[in-house]
Design a protein that fits this description.
Chain lengths: 67, 429
């Protein structure tokens, strides 16, 4: 079961903490907003940590319905 | 709105009454032409109401608000959601070069309202909200049409007119819902989509004004009749706003699949030498002249790498600079951000600035490189599709005006770029 990172772009304020905590899957664009990549299963704990630590609770982790 | 209510063409369905009368149809005109809407309690053919979704599905009607989404599928989703629903008519036409919805609601308001009433019956809605831009004649005209229906006891479901700010993203469906609910006219994060939770938290059908008018005719004349015009994969007729360098700019009705070239002919033909056509408005795509033979179906447009959007065709004359025109549009689009999502708030002005540099012949290779990079990361990262539309428009400009890009890189100045713009910019920038 694959997992998918999602961000609510309205509540995201570009803190960038997620990219610091989980650089394997999250990079920042030139304005500091996250670009989300795939979450390999073995890195799920890191993804959970990034989601939990987002100061505006904008980051979400969901099961990818397509796989 | 720039488009005058001029109509030509032979495929009049929505506009047939207007062609015949030469003026806007009041309720009496409307009933004389089409008879009452087939609603229970109003017409003997009441079974049509409950079967309406199936008929709309058989007709193959797709939304005329730009996304070409199958209307019956939307109606089923709303009908399947719990509790009484709400029907919202999106007549808050936000594309600056579009005039079709305002025109339709002006000359045939009862077709739109019949369609909304029929849809309300089919999806189980107890409330209809018609959204129009604030401060225009359209709100008053629509109120008059609603009053006419009330006097004739033709309103099983109450209809309310809601005036919406005239901003581009205010007409996006979650913005409308947000505004009707007393919030700002700005998009909200989805899910929930309006069909799940919309006006007053109820399942809400948001469709374009023209879409409802087609429903009104499909309910009366059937799916086969609807499919007798248009193409098998995109049936029926559609309204197109044809402007720019054409002899008779205005709104035309034509079978879906009519080529862009034929639409230009229906608007009197080019009024001068053309260099390109903008299809789909400011969230749409430029087409090079060889592509004017593309049929206006979503599939044919997608195959040509283009977006049809809500039936907008703008003819760009040879004397204009396509890059300067595009830069002005992008500056306007950047200003129309709802200022909520980083990639849109910062990304669109960045792209607009890159385009301004290109239009001014100030851009070196690094600007083009940066622009490509920016265009690759912005789409899909806003709460709504506003940034996607702006990027699509920008990318098509670089492609269609590629040889002129070379000229701007080499020449140091472009006289055409200094001329006043052809594309309409609200507030006239
Ligand atoms: C930025 C933006 C602007 C939009 N503007 C309009 C508009 O002016 N009129 C409209 O009908 N739909 C507009 N839409 C599409 C609506 O969100 C919605 O999909 C549409 O009204 C559904 O109607 P339809 O299914 O009949 O096409 C816009 C969407 C976006 C992302
Ligand atoms: S993408 Fe832009 S226009 Fe759409 S909601 Fe976000 S900030 Fe507003």
């Amino acid at each position: 079961m694959a997992w998918l990172l999602l961000v609510n772009p309205i509540t995201c304020t570009g803190h960038g903490i997620c990219a610091e905590l989980f650089p394997e899957a999250i990079s920042l664009d030139e304005w500091g907003y996250p670009i989300l990549g795939a979450v390999p299963d073995r890195l799920l704990p890191l993804a959970r940590r990034a989601v939990a630590d987002c100061p505006t609770l904008a980051l979400m982790l969901e099961r990818d319905g397509k796989s | 709105m720039t488009a005058a209510p001029v109509t030509t063409g032979t495929a009049g369905r929505l506009l047939a009454g207007y062609h015949a009368l030469g003026r806007a149809a009041g309720l009496r005109d409307h009933l004389t032409q089409h008879g009452p809407p087939p609603l229970p309690g109003i017409s003997a053919r009441s079974s049509v109401g409950s079967q309406l979704i199936q008929v709309v599905e058989d007709a193959g009607l797709t939304g005329r608000g730009g996304g070409a989404f199958p209307t019956a599928r939307k109606m089923r989703s709303v009908a399947a959601s719990r509790g009484p629903a709400v029907v919202v008519v999106n007549a808050a036409e936000g594309e600056p070069a579009s005039g079709k919805d305002a025109m339709l609601l002006t000359v045939a308001p009862h077709l739109v309202l019949d369609g909304a009433a029929l849809a309300a019956h089919a999806v189980g809605a107890r409330q209809i909200v018609v959204c129009v831009h604030a401060g225009g004649e359209l709100a008053a005209g629509t109120e008059r049409a609603v009053a006419e229906r009330e006097q004739a006891h033709l309103t099983a479901v109450p209809i309310r007119v809601c005036e919406v700010p005239g901003r581009y993203v205010a007409s996006e469906e979650t913005s409308l819902v947000n505004w009707i609910n007393g919030g700002e006219a700005k998009p909200t994060f989805t899910p929930p989509r309006p069909y799940e939770r919309g006006v007053d938290g109820r399942p809400t059908m948001v469709s374009n004004a023209e879409t409802y008018a087609h429903i009104a005719l499909i309910a009366r004349y059937g799916a086969e009749w609807f499919r007798s015009l248009g193409s098998p994969d995109a049936p029926g007729t559609a309204l197109f706003t044809v402007t720019g360098a054409v002899a008779v700019p205005g709104v035309v009705e034509a079978p879906v699949g009519t080529t862009v070239a034929d639409l230009l002919r229906m608007a009197g033909g080019p009024s001068e030498q053309l260099q390109a056509v903008l299809a789909g408005g400011y969230g749409g795509t430029w087409l090079s002249l060889p592509l004017v033979h593309t049929p206006t179906t979503p599939a044919a447009f997608a195959a040509a790498g283009a977006a049809l959007g809500p039936g907008i065709i703008i003819a760009l004359p040879s004397r204009a600079c396509g890059l300067a025109e595009s830069a002005r549009v992008l500056a306007w689009m950047a200003g129309e951000t709802a200022a909520q999502c980083g990639p849109c708030v910062f990304g669109l002005p960045a792209i607009a600035q890159d385009f301004a540099a290109i239009a001014d012949c100030r851009a070196d290779a690094s600007v083009y490189h940066r622009l490509q990079q920016r265009m690759s990361v912005i789409p899909g990262r806003g709460a709504c599709r506003h940034p996607d539309g702006a990027v699509r428009f920008a990318a098509s400009a670089l492609q269609v005006f590629a040889s002129h890009v070379n000229f701007h890189e080499r020449a140091g100045r472009c006289l055409a770029a200094r001329r006043p713009g052809v594309l309409p910019i609200p507030g006239g920038r």
